[in-house]
Amino acid sequence: MDPRPPVQRAPETPVGGCEFQPRLSAFHDGELDPDAERVVQRHLAACESCRLELQDIRELSALAARIGIDGMSPRALRRLHQAIDGQARQYSIFRIAGALTGLAASAMVVGAAWLWDAGDSRSSASIKYVIIEPGPTDKWEYLAVNLKADPLPTERWEVNDQQMLADARLTSWMLEGLGGSGR
Amino acid sequence: MEQPDLELAKLAASGDRGAFHMIVERHSRGLFRIARSLCKCNSDAEDVVQDTFLAAYRGIGKFDGRSSLKTWLARIVMKRSISAWRKDKRHRAAVSLEASHDAPGDDGRATRTAGTAVVDQRLDLAAVLPDLADEYREIFVLREIQGLSYAEIAAALHIPAGTVDSRLHRARGELRKRLKGYGPS
Q: Is the CB of residue A57 less than 8 Å from the CB of residue B172?
């Protein structure tokens, strides 16, 4: 039986791979501290598997480094700046509209508050009654409302006032019409 | 002296359009690279970048400065790129296996070694990156395209730096596996 304890494999170590492999990414990126870097360098000199792994990582980085290296075309960049200007203008309009809406809403709130306050003071302080004076009533109306006789005895009525008589006749005629007693 | 991003963002939020144009000038290149890594073509990526900046313009007042403006914009562009990519279902079926540039990277590190299982540079990374799990894709893009440090990524994603390390390792492994799957027989 082998008395040596089993080799503790790092969790990232691939099956069949070297235990240094998980450190190669950080080594490639220059993210190891100087001591750890020296250890990896010494290991690389002796481990072909890790050298190949590192080569792969470098190739991948080189591939990524070339992506989009030329940048956006000047035309696309110009279009981008124009689009931002367009959006900014649109935003300005929205901002003005928003400000005006806010202003209108504020005016409404202030007005409503003022009316509320004014209404409240009127009810609590001194209530003023408004009396509407009746306007001049037509005589026929007066007769229609006040005369008891129905129909009006306009023929036999002894009234000196000719105008009053005429109004009474008109009233009688209208009441007959309204009551459906006419022809 | 260059104005800090946060200052420009505050000015833009107060209605200074010029400040926002400066933000666009400063970040459009980086955002385009992210979008391009997740979109099928330049034109789509340009549209996504435009949408991103317009959305950022509308929401700049909500930017609270807890993360950097660069990271904030990067996350918006990633979400929009993925959303655009998912809408375009046909893209999945049309993954291009056509040859792309085969030149080594600018730093000269990317040299092919015969007989080794290297990533085939003819393949389009943008074709497989959108299919990666969200947590892997995001971390890969922030590191490889945006060039953020582990600490910056940890701050941006609110995760421990150790998680950044392990997740990035897995993301790279997953990407390499998928790229090999598309490789020439």
A: yes
Number of helical (H) and strand (E) elements in chain B, helices listed first: 9, 0
Using the Cβ of B174 and the Cβ atoms of chain A, whether some distance falls under 8 Å is answered with: no
Q: Is A89 on the interface with B (CB under 8 A)?
A: no
Report d(CA B28, CA A71) in Å as an integer. Answer: 8
pLDDT tens per residue across span A60-117: 999 888 888 888 999 999 999 999 999 888 776 766 777 778 888 888 888 888 887 7
Q: What is the pTM of this model?
A: 0.61
**What's the number of CA atoms in the CB half-sphere (13 Å) around residue A102?**
6
pLDDT digits (tens, 9 = 90+) for A21-50: 999 999 999 999 999 999 999 999 999 999
Q: What is the 3-state secondary structure (H, E, C) of A47-73?
A: CHHHHHHHHHHHHHHHHHHHCCCCCCC
ipTM exceeds 0.85: no
Integer Cα distance of B77 and A92 in angstroms: 25
User: CA-to-CA distance for B74 and B142, rounded, in angstroms?
Assistant: 8
CB of A103 within 8 Å of any CB in chain B?
A: no
**What does the alpha-carbon distance between residue A71 and residue B60 come to, in Å, rounded to a whole number?**
24
User: Tens of pLDDT along B127-164?
Assistant: 788 888 988 998 999 999 988 999 999 988 889 989 99
CB contact under 8 A, A52 and B116: yes
First CA to last CA distance, chain B:
54
pLDDT reported for residue A80: 94
3-state percent breakdown (helix, strand, coil) of chain A, nearest 5: 65, 0, 35
Interatomic CA distance for residues A153 and B175, integer angstroms: 117
Are B82 and B51 in contact by the 8 Å Cβ rule? The answer is no
A88: which chain B residues are within 8 Å (Cβ-Cβ)?
17, 20, 57
Task: Look up residue B91 and give its amino acid.
Answer: H
